[in-house]
């Protein structure tokens, strides 16, 4: 390494590390641009990143904002009530919560997904997977 500074390091075959300036290069050949998560084969061919499935409950609920659902919740170790059912319009959904509103009373509920058992809807759901399979759920 040169004195008085640090050289950037880049991974090489078999886990060895070499300074960027020591990377092998071929005159007149530009390395391929690689997007995050992509793979470059030994021949230099870039393969796309494998798709990530993100069909979490929060995302499915977000695809169905404005629809009325019935939410079945369980509260362990609760002496007053162990299970409770909430029916309302899905207003928002986050990683750990769901916001419902009761259209008859205007009352709003903030429910924790930790307690969620399942949800039913009386209408078809919007459900498009982010990795290429498009379309809604089949209806009966």
TrEMBL record:
InterPro entries, per database record: Spore_coat_GerQ (IPR014099)
Pfam families, per database record: Spore_GerQ (PF09671)
Top-level taxon in the UniProt lineage: Bacteria
Keywords in alphabetical order: Capsid protein, Virion
UniProt-recorded name of the protein: Spore coat protein GerQ
